């Protein structure tokens, strides 16, 4: 898929220059053959979480949906770091979304749609993916949302193909 930078600009999306620093002993993303697996990404904006708490209590579903979108963009930044360019993305294979939920909150799929929608807008048909949306008791740093991606990428160009 060519022109992802242009597509991002058209959508008014700026990816973080670097994905947020890991909160432990791991890396933001790993390339294995033609798949990139991201670590769970929180919705950091300029190094801070825009909201904290449980969805359905301290955090609205709309705010959480925006957090899922931001976390997905952070995950794409991690993908770009390991493959060099998002133009190498063949397809988004899977999205896993964790939603820190108040016990009565059951709309986790709607929250994780924030990630799915932005990935579809960026990659078109290649952004259509399998997905899990899981309600959990708590997430790191009291984040309302955490997003992981599995992304298929094309092989890098060899010197003869450049």
Q: Portion of residues in helices? A: 25-40%
C-alpha termini separation:
16 Å
Q: Regarding CATH, which class?
A: Alpha Beta
CATH fold name, please? 60s Ribosomal Protein L30, Chain: A
**Shape verdict:** globular
- Overall average residue pLDDT: 93
SSE arrangement, N to C: HEEHEHEE
Could you give the count of β-strands? 5
Total domain modules: 1
Walk me through this protein's architecture.
The chain has 162 residues and is an alpha+beta fold. It has a single domain (4-14, 31-154), classed as RutC-like (60s Ribosomal Protein L30, Chain: A), CATH 3.30.1330. The protein contains three helices and five strands; from the N terminus they run αββαβαββ. The chain has helices at residues 4-11, 61-83, 108-123, and strands spanning 29-32, 35-38, 89-100, 130-136, 145-153. The chain has a five-stranded mixed β-sheet, with helices on one face. A hairpin with a 2-residue loop joins strand 1 (29-32) and strand 2. The longest helix has 23 residues, at 61-83. The mean pLDDT is 93.
């Amino acid at each position: 898929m060519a022109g992802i930078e242009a597509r991002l600009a058209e959508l008014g999306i700026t990816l973080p220059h670097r994905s947020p620093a890991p909160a432990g002993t791991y890396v933001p993303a790993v390339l294995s053959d033609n798949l990139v697996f991201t670590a769970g990404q929180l919705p950091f904006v300029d190094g801070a979480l825009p909201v904290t708490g449980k969805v359905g209590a301290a955090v609205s579903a709309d705010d959480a949906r925006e957090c899922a979108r931001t976390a997905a963009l952070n995950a794409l930044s991690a993908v770009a770091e390991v493959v060099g360019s998002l133009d190498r993305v063949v397809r988004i294979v899977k999205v896993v979304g964790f939603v820190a939920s108040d016990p009565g909150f059951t709309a986790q799929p709607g929250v994780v749609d924030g990630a799915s929608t932005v990935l579809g807008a960026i990659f078109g048909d290649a952004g259509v993916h399998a997905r899990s949306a899981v309600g959990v008791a708590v997430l790191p740093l009291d984040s309302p949302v955490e997003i992981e991606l599995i992304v298929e990428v094309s092989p890098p160009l060899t010197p003869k193909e450049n």
